[in-house]
Design a protein that fits this description.
The complex is a heterodimer. By secondary structure, chain A is mainly alpha-helical. Chain A has 17 helices and three strands. The model of chain A has no long low-confidence stretch (mean pLDDT 86). By secondary structure, chain B is an alpha+beta fold. In chain B, helix 10 runs antiparallel to helix 20, helix 12 packs parallel to helix 14 and helix 12 packs across helix 15. The chains are: A mainly alpha, B alpha+beta.
Chain lengths: 430, 713
């Protein structure tokens, strides 16, 4: 009897806006997965929306389960989850199933799951446990090395699959959690600066000054790129084809970046370089988004989508945003961005409102994970970030990831539901 | 510091740190929204255009070419269906790229080694080579042509093979079903119904060599009427806009504009008479020559034959390089339209001299005026011989025409004066292009205007020569310039009076001239095109009509005209054109043999131009004819039998005999001299119509006194 009352009181304490936004995003996702797949020649993919509905059911179960269980248990046994996750990742490398050129799937009876997605949650819990455990040393520098090591292990395992996107997500998650956990801000400024420098280097030195990737060429390109960036010498025109400016590397040169890596960076900034190859997806994505205009072409009427120019194998997961932006235009695209941003803001609010450190760590971790997915996914389709295949939270097709996202939001919800209890407990304790 | 305090500090710190993260996210969201705005709103049009470009295929729908139809509605040039295999190169290459993950083979352009192009011939070979070989389909292109096509007009399908039979095509269709970009089509191609029939008039069509900006047409008229009336015949191309998916498969048809068939050109030719004339020229063994038949009352050109000829159907749809080379290399020039080429008129020109004299009151010449015409006469220090050594004595016009007496016309030309002869010749259009539209623009740009020499003409010629010689010398150092200025003399007049020297006329000119005698003095402008009409929805709208035009009238007394006509009748019944005499069709006419030498096989040989101009039936003329044969023995011997055969056949036709309009093979050219078979020994002696004008091409030489005084003329 008592537990029933307890359940209802918890249910009433759910933060409703978060649940509503999440449900809305997931529903929109299913709607557009339908649009992205109804013209797909593969009959299997045509059923993607139906399968996503099933997954949504599973994900809601996970969501409420996570909401009503006190989140502290996950932090308390965070190290177990973390070690378990590492174990599973190793198991994937050993027994995984290969799909789309990467070995990142595990077959469990009728279900095929991507453990890497769930490992992100486990990683958040493990990281939460670690930060909480090391809280008295948090201002020192040595724990940072532990944090980096702990981040790098799952990262390396996922990279081995290879799944660059999911591996990369670990970085921002750790960053968000460390910032929330109280690590000195000056330490954290370092990776931010490094990121900015990397972008700057890629754009001005590799793309504009056309560095060929060798040590011999580096000095010239750094000079030229820097001068171009401050406007001392005029920008070089974007090359028209890969052929027109060949990346010529002398035989005896010391290669720092390989030719394909250099080309990949250049193609990111100028997809026209290789319209049939590496630039194909980004070009098609830009055309889809761009041709959508203000209001779009109407649901299930996007030419890029239905004529299959958007990569048909991924338009329902990684390239779902261009489908929406093409069919619902800027209104729809901005709407998706708003929903995602609101969800992130609510998570951070919850994290700020709890007086319990593990709670805010969980929220920061979830925010980091969802933000990275959202920013890179949307950004890559409009040429803001390099093409990296990671899905858009709640909207992209993909059962494991949907379950991971919703379970993660369940954790956040749990933080919200239980925030008073722990504050009270602390007060009682003090 | 109590635990509450710790909580408080933690709380503040977390709030601040969460705010930092919020700002982080806010910045990212602003960046995303900004970029999204740029892509969707500011650059939206650019991407919308790219989208159109990659999802639509614009196809050209070629219009069927308009027909060329004779005066009775018999089609001369029409269309028939050709079963072809087309390749949409963009589609082919696009799919190949996808299949091979953009591992496209490249090759350098044959015309520019620095350009790299997709190796389309290689891809096509890989995709279809074995299939084509198995089915025994021969393709008609070379690699360079294909690359050029891919480079310059990828939107137009490339024709891989043409004129296949239905079985082969359907087998190919079954096997090629999985190759994107390959399509089997039936396309209308030009067909010349009677083969080598009026081929110089009709001309032929061929591939477009120079693309007009933005207009993609497949065939264009290359020669003859096909070229002159190309704008009308061409029709309006239609188009189709198709939507295609990423694999190049056509998903839907967005818009279709049907092509409009070209206009029909109605020509004045009568296919039956043309066929008769073509056949006669072939059967009489003419190696090089022309024949023009006019309706003397309207000036309509009923037949116009040029030998040798070619079958324009071999040029459709593409000119085989070998045949083209062969035709151009042929010394007898089968592509040359002889019916509108200039020739020395020879004795047929005497008719014009007679008309000039009869028309000129100052000449005081009537049909009964007699002139003493001996074997020769002396003028300007020279002996001007007649071709008949015996001399004719005192004769009038009838006898002079009948036996083509040179000395008579020499004297007559001096009597009437060169100016009146020039005037008369100009009335018949000698010196101008004759086959023109209503606006006076010539229908055949290659038509020879001919030359009517005279004092003024000589002045102009010499002026031009003196004005240009310095330039000519510069261009060609071996150019030799005659320093003395040539002036018109009586010698020139005498030469002109027998149609030699500078005189140059086309068979059309002579037919026009003889028409005016046949119809009693009205000079009709020859007319080849009757009308141009456009068929639309079963209704024929005449868009341009070419009216019958009168050039002028001969103001010769009717009895004089009657006498001239009679003398021309006598030429046929008892004169030089005896071989043209036939009971079936009474003809009147005049023969001529112009001296000419050609260099054939490196040797200068006699290559006379034999002429017959005439009309018939004598009492009620319906046809005027001019026949010229290069290498003929003489006007009467060579051309007479041709005229006879033509008009006997026409007589049969008029009586209603069934015509057998067989498909004609090209008339082969040759340099063998031809003389009509000797039919009748008694007339043979009279037949020798070889008027020998040894002085023909010689200009009047320096006289004795010139020599004494060292004068240069």
């Amino acid at each position: 009897m008592n537990s029933i009352i307890d359940f209802f009181s918890k249910f009433l304490r759910i933060q409703w806006p978060l649940l509503v936004l999440m449900t809305l995003a997931t529903a929109l996702g299913i709607v557009f997965i339908r649009s992205a797949t109804f013209m797909n020649p593969s009959p299997d993919l045509q059923l993607a929306a139906d399968r996503q509905i099933t997954w949504m059911g599973i994900a809601f179960v996970a969501y409420f389960l996570m909401s009503f269980i006190d989140y502290r248990i996950w932090i308390k046994y965070g190290y177990v989850l973390y070690l378990g996750a590492v174990g599973i990742l190793i198991a994937v490398l050993a027994f995984g199933v290969e799909k789309n050129l990467s070995k990142s799937w595990l077959q469990l009876g009728p279900l095929s799951i991507q453990p890497a997605e769930l490992c992100k949650l486990a990683f958040i819990c493990g990281m939460g446990w670690l930060i909480t455990s090391l809280r008295i040393h948090i201002k020192k520098i040595w724990p940072l090395f532990i944090f980096i090591l702990v981040t790098l292990i799952p990262m390396a395992l996922i990279l081995k699959q290879p799944d660059l996107g999911s591996a990369m997500v670990m970085g921002p998650i750790a960053f968000f959690m460390l910032l929330a956990g109280g690590v000195r801000k000056r330490y954290l400024a370092l990776p931010v600066l490094a990121g900015v420098a990397g972008v700057y280097f890629s754009y001005w030195v590799v793309h504009k000054a056309e560095w060929n990737g060798t040590a011999e060429d580096l000095t010239r390109c750094i000079q030229e790129g820097t001068l171009m960036s401050i406007g001392k010498i005029p920008d070089s025109e974007d090359a028209l084809t890969m052929d027109s400016r060949k990346n010529t590397v002398p035989e005896d040169a010391t290669v720092i970046l390989k030719a394909y890596q250099v080309n990949r960076i250049r193609t990111t900034f100028n997809p026209d370089l290789d319209p049939q190859g590496a630039g194909w997806a980004i070009r098609q994505s830009l055309i889809a988004v761009g041709s959508g205009g203000w209001k779009g072409k109407g649901y299930m009427q996007g030419d890029q989508n239905i004529y299959g120019f958007l990569p048909q194998t991924t338009s329902h997961n990684d390239y779902i945003f261009p489908v929406i932006a093409e069919e619902w235009g800027f209104v729809g695209g901005a709407g998706i961005i708003f929903i995602q941003a609101l969800i992130l803001w609510l998570i951070l609010t919850i994290g700020a409102s709890t007086q319990d450190r593990p709670g805010s760590l969980l929220c920061a971790g979830m925010a980091g994970m969802l933000f990275t997915h959202f920013f890179i996914n949307v950004g890559m389709t409009i040429q803001l970030v390099p093409v990296t295949g990671i899905p858009l939270p709640f909207i992209s097709y993909g059962g494991t990831f949907l379950v991971a996202c919703m379970a993660g939001l369940g954790l956040v919800q749990s933080v919200w539901i239980h925030r008073k209890q722990h504050t009270d407990a602390r007060k009682a304790y003090s | 510091m109590g635990p509450g305090m710790i909580v408080q500090i933690h709380q503040t710190s977390v709030k601040f740190r969460m705010a930092i993260l919020s700002l982080f996210i806010l910045a990212a969201v602003i960046a995303l929204l900004g970029k999204l705005y740029v892509v969707q709103v500011e650059e939206g049009d650019k991407y919308a255009k790219s989208l159109r470009k990659q999802t639509t295929v614009a196809l050209l729908l070629s219009p069927a070419r308009g027909g060329i139809v004779d005066r009775n509605g018999v089609g001369l040039a029409e269309n028939k269906a050709s079963l072809d295999i087309d390749v949409y190169l963009k589609e082919l290459v696009g799919n190949y790229a996808r299949e091979t993950r953009s591992q496209l083979p490249y090759t350098s352009a044959p015309w520019d080694s620095n350009r790299r192009l997709v190796d389309v011939p290689g891809i096509l070979q890989e995709k279809t080579g074995s299939m084509l070989k198995d089915l025994g389909i021969t393709t008609t292109f070379d690699a360079e042509e294909l690359l050029r096509h891919y480079d310059q007009k990828p939107n137009i399908p490339f024709q891989l093979a043409n004129s296949l039979d239905f079985q082969t095509l359907s087998k190919f269709s079954e096997q090629s079903i999985n190759i994107a970009g390959i399509q089997e089509t039936a396309r209308p191609i030009r067909n010349y119904n009677f083969g080598a029939f009026a081929s110089h008039i009709l001309g032929f069509v061929g591939d477009v060599e120079e693309e007009k900006e933005g207009i993609y047409i497949e065939t264009v008229g290359k020669q003859g009427l096909e070229r002159s009336f190309d704008d009308f015949l061409q029709g309006t191309p239609g188009g189709k806009i198709l939507r295609k998916n990423n694999l190049g498969y056509i998903m839907s048809v967005e818009a279709v504009q049907k092509p409009e068939i070209g206009s029909t050109v109605y020509v004045s030719l009568d296919a039956r008479i043309q066929h008769i004339a073509e056949t006669a020229m072939r059967e009489r063994g003419v190696g090089r020559g022309a024949c023009v038949i006019l309706d003397p009352h309207s000036g309509d050109i009923l037949a116009m034959v040029s030998v040798p000829s070619y079958d324009p159907n071999i040029f459709i749809p593409q000119v085989p390089a070998n045949d083209w080379k062969q035709l151009n290399a042929d010394k007898t020039k089968p592509l040359h339209h002889r019916a509108i080429s200039g020739y020395a008129a020879g004795s047929t020109f005497k008719t014009i001299v007679a008309l000039a004299a009869l028309n000129n009151p100052d000449a005081r010449f009537t049909p009964s005026t007699t002139i003493v015409s001996n074997a020769g006469f002396y003028h300007v220090n020279r002996w001007w011989k007649d071709w008949y050594a015996g001399g004719r004595g005192s004769i009038n016009l009838t006898t002079a025409m009948q036996w083509s007496v040179n000395t008579f016309f020499y004297q007559l030309s001096l009597r009437t004066g060169i100016d009146s002869i020039v005037d008369m010749a100009k009335r018949f259009g000698i010196g101008e292009q004759m086959i023109t539209g209503p606006n006076g623009r010539p229908i055949f740009p290659t038509e020879d205007p001919g030359v009517m020499p005279g004092p003024q003409w000589m002045e102009d010629r010499e002026d031009a020569r003196f004005a240009n010689w310095a330039k000519m010398k510069e261009e060609d150092p071996s150019f030799t310039h005659r320093r003395w200025r040539e002036r018109w003399s009586d010698g020139h007049t005498l030469n002109t009076s027998i149609g030699q020297g500078f005189v140059s006329v086309t068979p059309v000119h002579m037919a026009t001239m003889v028409s005016s005698i046949a119809n009693g003095g009205i000079i009709m402008q020859p007319r080849l095109i009757l009308a141009i009409a456009r068929e639309k929805g079963g209704v024929t709208n005449v868009i341009e009509e070419y009216p019958v035009r009168e050039r002028g009238r001969l103001d010769i007394r009717p009895d004089y005209m009657k006498a001239l006509q009679n003398s021309m009748r006598m030429v046929v019944t008892g004169g030089t054109a005896g071989r043209a005499n036939t009971d079936a069709f009474p003809l009147a006419g005049k023969t001529g043999t112009a001296q000419h030498w050609s260099v054939i096989g490196g040797r200068k040989v006699k290559d006379n131009r034999a002429w017959f101009t005439g009309y018939g039936p004598y009492e009620n003329p319906r046809y005027a004819v001019a026949i010229v044969v290069e290498g003929g023995a003489g006007g009467g011997t060579t051309c007479g039998p041709i005229a006879k055969q033509i008009f006997e056949k026409i007589a049969e036709m008029e009586k209603g005999a069934a015509m057998d309009m067989v498909y004609l093979t090209p008339a082969r050219g040759h340099f063998r001299g031809i003389s009509g078979a000797v039919a009748n020994e008694s007339t043979a002696t009279q037949d020798i119509d070889a008027e020998r004008q040894e002085n023909s091409s010689a200009r009047p030489g320096r006289s004795f006194w010139d020599f004494i005084f060292g004068r240069r003329r």
